[in-house]
Specification:
The protein is 40% helix and 22% strand. It has 3 domains: 104 residues, PAS domain (Beta-Lactamase, 2-Layer Sandwich), CATH 3.30.450.20; 64 residues; 158 residues, Heat Shock Protein 90. 30% of the residues are buried. The protein is built from 13 helices and 13 strands.
């Protein structure tokens, strides 16, 4: 690897103390006015995998393959590098794996008066894991009745088929064909129960974020299976309009399912609470030509009041009597951590609330 010469200069660059920055718990980077690295602390080494001597003198945006996420506004172009800025970036670590980070960038002037220096404070998304897990467990609490039904139904069938098998075996000449069918049915119901428990275990687990290619249509189908009994219990007519091109995003499938389950449950509760005559939930996936995939969730509930629209994603804001006000903020955090955005969109005629999640399409070529 050919190393670039380290930029020279007095004042801020020469007095910059990496040892002091090493005490910071998060990544802190010092840049010159052209975006080349002057200082790189140990938290940055741990986050990106690049040692200090590998980074000093390198252009940060080029080395980490910076791409803007979230709001589609400038954030790491050379012509606006000197502006104070904060926002979400997708970067690549040394091993090629992505890092979705929130950046706070501030400009300061060197003590010699020559040129600006830029300090970046970066927070990795791993810090949101506990809150995300707590929200998943809270969702499971809301679905206790549905979960109990989903588990008890196959177990009841297993009990009945087992009794029938014992009855056939008690005969002088057992009907082997009938016994085979009963045994097959028992195995199928056992698999069904195991699948239900597996989905619950996945939602309840405190696993580290696992980023990999995920088919967004599969996320929708898995979420519908998870909520199947809740839809039946609340008399919800569910419609899925899935993109036939099978768009793929790069993310954590469990967390993305958590976002969709939360939006769907909010829709179900809105329609149930308003005693809507028609209860329809429609989920749509659609890939766009500009490299994004949209996941749209809309219902036939009463919609959202304009007074609440601006505070929907604030923590602890809720319109429900028994709500905690964490579902949407944590969903927003998950979506931002995947390089996307979530918003309340204008409603379609005849429909209520409409939420749109936009995520970057996974590019297999890198």
């Amino acid at each position: 690897m050919t190393m670039k010469a380290r930029p020279t200069g007095s004042g801020c660059a020469e007095s910059f103390d990496n040892d002091l920055l090493d005490h910071a718990p998060h990544s802190v980077v010092l840049l010159d006015s052209s975006g080349h690295v002057l200082g790189w602390n140990k938290a940055s080494e741990q986050l990106y995998g690049w040692d200090r001597h590998d980074m000093v003198g390198e252009h940060l945006g080029e080395r980490l393959s910076c791409r803007l996420t979230g709001e589609r506004a400038p954030g790491f172009r050379r012509d606006d590098l000197l502006d104070d800025w904060s926002g979400w970036l997708r970067r690549e670590a040394r091993d090629g794996s992505p890092r979705f980070v929130h950046v706070i960038r501030r400009k300061m002037r060197g003590s010699d008066g020559e040129g600006a220096r830029i300090v970046e404070f970066v927070t990795d998304q791993a810090g949101h894991l506990d809150g995300t897990h707590a929200a998943r467990v809270a969702v499971l609490g809301q679905l206790t009745a549905s979960i109990a039904h989903e588990v008890s139904q196959p177990l009841s069938t297993i009990a009945l088929t087992s009794a029938s098998m014992l009855s056939w075996l008690a005969r002088d000449v057992p009907n082997l064909d009938e016994l085979r069918e009963l045994a097959k049915s028992t195995a199928e119901q056992a698999t069904r129960a195991a699948d239900v428990l597996g989905r619950i275990r996945t939602m309840a687990s405190r696993a580290e974020t696992s980023m990999q290619p995920v088919a967004i249509n599969t996320v929708v189908q898995d979420s519908f299976r998870f909520l199947r009994h809740e839809f039946l219990l609340r008399d919800i007519d569910v419609e899925a309009c899935l993109d036939p091109t099978e768009p793929v995003v790069f993310g954590d499938g469990v967390q993305l399912q958590q976002v969709l389950v939360n939006l769907a449950l909010n829709a179900v509760q809105a329609m149930t609470g308003a005693t809507s005559d028609v209860r329809r939930l429609r989920v749509t996936t659609r890939a766009s030509v500009d490299g994004w995939v949209a996941l749209c969730v809309e219902d036939t509930g009463p919609g959202i009041d304009a007074a609440d629209a601006h505070t929907l994603f604030q923590s602890f804001h809720t319109t429900k009597a028994d709500g905690m006000g964490l579902g949407l903020p944590i969903s927003q955090s998950i979506v931002h951590g995947h390089g996307g955005m979530i918003r309340l969109a204008p409603r379609n005629e005849g429909w209520g609330a409409r939420f749109v999640v936009e995520l970057p399409v996974f590019n297999r070529a890198g």
